[in-house]
Design brief:
This protein is an all-alpha fold. The chain has one domain. 79% of the residues lie in helices and 0% in strands. It is built from 23 helices and no strands. The chain is globular and about 75 Å long. The relative contact order is 0.15.
């Protein structure tokens, strides 16, 4: 049996293992290792696999990943999420669907301090959803806003997904982080306008809320109260944009800044620090395990010829570029129903990235595109992790089906945003190009 056939059989075995609910990392590691034993001499494999895993997980750039996670947890303990919500509510509380609009913008603001959409969903499930429901808002609308708004964390830097993508495709992480800013703003604005318009047409879904101070005095006070968010975001992203520091160095500065804010606001306890460190370590360990297993699996697909054969086959089909992008969007939307974001990325990038490069597309733009379609997968059943995190955070107070149903209309908006980013790639590329020109 030739190597290419073995490669495709190995991929089929991987798919079967996934359907039997074997964890992604274990499935990739087992199939990749077994395949390499078939292709190479056992002595070679025993030397190759440790070196391959080490080379992909010891990349110093990956140090930004646990640091950004830790920065997000510390920002939460510094109450930056509550400050973000209070500021957004003061500015948008009286527009139709004001509390829902405020939640979207609060997610965008807090996203500048946190790199995890799951953490953001958990936080705002406890802050904004109860207030919206108390104010008479439709329950599904309240839940859907948070589930979909949490996706802003994937685009607005610092983004964990962008870091993983950058390492896997050897793309500048600094440019990727900056590239997500304008798409993130577009995302928030389209959501806010759509919510306001819907609530204006159907006011029974979001009754006018009394008792919210939206005077200019309250608004200016709210702006002053989010100085910590602005400072943290400005220091981290400003250092990356100007080239004063690498992303991992900026992440370290962000951790120190977030820790100082916790101390300054008298929120510091050793128990909180211990929890933040453990949670960051757990999330980082999961991601590193996936990256290590993916490197073995990708090596097997590469040496067996699967990657090159698929790239050659698609290229020879002569499909227009837009058709390939549309096909990839459909593929990721389907995969998002069954796989989490990082698993999708580590599984497909070895095949998809060379294909995109063969058509001359920017890997920076493609990183934003991938992040956007991954966000959609985070709110679609049966594996929409944002929805499950909200259910875990709120317990019996909500039904999981209500969360998925509430998020469903926002999936249409997310697809619209993705299409806009495909038609106008400069939305993603303008700031990275400005970044290069300032150096």
């Amino acid at each position: 049996m030739d190597q290419l056939t073995i490669g495709y059989l190995g991929f089929l075995a991987f798919v079967i293992l996934i359907f039997f609910r074997v964890p992604i990392a274990y499935a990739m590691g087992v199939v990749g290792t077994a395949g390499l034993f078939y292709v190479y001499d056992p002595q070679v494999v025993f030397k190759f696999i440790p070196l391959e895993v080490y080379s992909h997980t010891s990349n110093f750039t990956l140090s930004a990943l646990p640091l950004f996670l830790l920065m997000g947890y510390l920002a939460f303990y510094a109450d930056l999420s509550k400050d973000s919500y209070d500021a957004a509510r003061a500015w948008f509380g009286k527009v139709p669907g004001g509390l829902a609009v405020a939640t979207v913008y609060a997610c965008a603001i807090f996203g500048a301090c946190s790199g995890s959409s799951l953490a953001e969903c958990a936080v705002f499930s406890k802050i904004s959803v109860p207030e919206m429901i108390r104010s008479g808002y439709n329950k599904r609308l309240s839940l859907g806003v948070v589930a979909a708004g949490g996706g802003l964390d994937v685009l607005i830097p610092p983004s964990i997904i962008m870091v993983v993508y950058g390492v896997m495709t050897e793309t500048s992480i600094g440019q990727l982080l900056i590239a997500g800013i304008l798409p993130g703003i577009l995302y928030a604005c389209i959501f806010a306008v759509a919510i306001a318009l819907f609530c204006w047409l159907k006011p029974e879904y979001a009754p006018k809320t009394e008792g919210i101070d939206t005077s200019w005095k309250a608004r200016l006070k709210a702006v002053r109260d989010i100085w910590a968010v602005v400072l943290l975001f400005g220091v981290v992203l400003g250092a990356i944009y100007t080239g004063w520091s690498t992303p991992d160095e900026a992440a370290a500065v962000g951790v120190v800044g977030a820790l100082l804010l916790v101390v300054y606001r008298k929120k510091f306890t050793w128990e909180k620090m211990k929890t933040a460190a453990i949670d960051s370590a757990k999330a980082s360990a999961m991601i590193f395990l996936l990256l290590g297993a993916a490197s073995v699996f990708a090596a097997f697909l590469s040496v067996s010829g699967v990657i090159s054969s698929i790239t050659t086959w698609v290229t020879k089909m002569g499909l227009p570029y837009w058709a390939i992008i549309a096909a990839l969007m459909i593929l990721y939307l389907i995969m998002g129903c069954f796989l989490d974001a990082i698993s999708m990325m580590v599984l497909t990038m070895p095949v998809v990235a060379p294909l995109v490069q063969a058509h001359g597309a920017s890997l920076v733009w493609f990183g934003v595109f991938i992040s956007m379609v991954i966000v959609i997968g985070a709110v679609t059943p049966p594996l929409g992790l944002n929805c499950y995190v909200m259910k875990a955070a709120m317990g019996d107070a909500v039904d999981l089906n209500d969360i998925f149903a509430g998020a469903a209309p926002f999936v249409v908006l997310m697809i619209l945003i993705t299409v806009i980013l495909c038609i106008f790639p400069e939305i993603s590329l303008w700031l990275p190009r400005m970044m290069l020109s300032t150096r």
